[in-house]
């Protein structure tokens, strides 16, 4: 919650114990808000929070095709409209329809093109990994050869080492990802 610390936005969520359906996509330019709002509500003990993150952009409609034309397969389609209605029916009309007994968090995993489900975000069992950006050349140009690594190379001179923190809010298409 440090991104908006001091802004008062998330601190004010303590007084709003209301059911919220947080939905976004890995390619949503505003997607950080959905994740931070979910985390903010959960941090205050609000349990009626649903989070769905799919392979789409800033939309209320699911699709198997991403913005770059990638086909994420038939599992990418989850019928968001029906899910919204079930959530609203449960909490606004008090209709017992079982949505509150389903996993509260659903995340689409690109590459496997399937969904993971759980009751917390990050999902139970998630292992956070530090990645280090390194380069064999100039990273400040289109010809730069930057790579993410899970460890620092021993030959990296301390004077050339930089440190920064990044909060990953967007997924990278498997065809565009380079890991070494």
Would you write up a description of this structure?
With 180 residues, the chain is α/β, with parallel strands linked by helices. It has two domains: 7-118, Alpha/Beta hydrolase fold, catalytic domain (Rossmann fold, 3-Layer(aba) Sandwich); 129-180, no CATH class. Helices cover 14% and strands 17% of the residues. Strands 1-2-3-4 form a four-stranded mixed sheet, covered by helices on one side. The chain has a two-stranded antiparallel sheet with strand order 5-6. The two termini are 30 Å apart. Mean pLDDT is 80; it is low at 172-180.
Q: TL;DR?
A:
The chain has a 4-stranded mixed beta sheet, covered by helices on one side. Strands 5-6 form a two-stranded antiparallel sheet. The protein is globular.
List keywords for this structure.
globular; 2 domains; 4-stranded mixed β-sheet; alpha/beta; single chain; Rossmann fold; 180 residues; 6 strands
The chain-level mean pLDDT equals 80
This entry's quaternary arrangement is single chain
Number of strands: 6
CATH architecture type of the largest domain = 3-Layer(aba) Sandwich
Number of individual domains: 2
pLDDT < 50 runs, ≥5 residues: 172-180
Taken as a percent bin, the fraction of beta residues is 15-25%
Distance between the termini: 30 Å
Give the biggest beta sheet.
4 strands, mixed
What is the element layout, followed by pairings?
Elements: E1 20-25, H1 31-43, E2 49-54, H2 80-92, E3 105-109, E4 114-118, E5 132-135, E6 146-149
